Amino acid sequence: MSSLQQVQVTFDCAAPERLARFWCEVLGYVVPPPPEGFATWDAYTQSLPSEQRDAWFACVDPSGVGPRLYFQRVPEGKAVKNRVHLDVRVATGLTGEARLSALEAECARLIPLGAVHVRTLYDGDDACIPMLDIEGNEFCLD
Fold it and tell me: Is residue 80 part of a domain?
């Protein structure tokens, strides 16, 4: 039986770099260095044939613990609800008003980045906040 070494989460999207940079801000991820031989990502992009430019982008957890996020341009737009979504865990271990407050603070931080607050779910003890990223992909603050 082989063990899983790494997981990459892939997003189909319209604007890979823009979406990757949004998720960098949400998660504290970083853009990795450009490929060998290129001083910047712009220089790398300009070296590609026009049809391959801006076709993909990636970001990584600077600690190396979280999965790499990969964003690939696709021609079709998002049509239905995601079958899989990310839970951004910002209130782990908190309950009640403390949990709700932590989630609301993170929601307020993400809205100016382009995220959309869908609703707040709160039962007096547990809470989560479903949101949309800048291309309409669902995620939850948990």
Answer: no
Tokens of 32: 């990795």
Calpha distance 20→27 (Å, rounded): 10
- 3-class DSSP state of 20: helix
Maximum distance among all Cα pairs of the chain, rounded to whole angstroms: 55
Would you call 92 exposed, middle or buried from its count of C-beta atoms within 10 A (0-12, 13-18, 19+)?
exposed
Q: Hey, which residues does 57 pair with through a beta bridge?
A: 71
d(CA 41, CA 126): 42
Could you tell me the pTM of the whole model?
0.85
Residues 26 and 63 in one domain: yes
Mean pLDDT along residues 31-60:
92
- Give me 114's structure tokens: 């382009």
| Lookup: tokens for 102 | 């932590």
Q: Whole-angstrom Cα distance, residue 14 to residue 18?
A: 9
Range of the domain at 111: 86-141
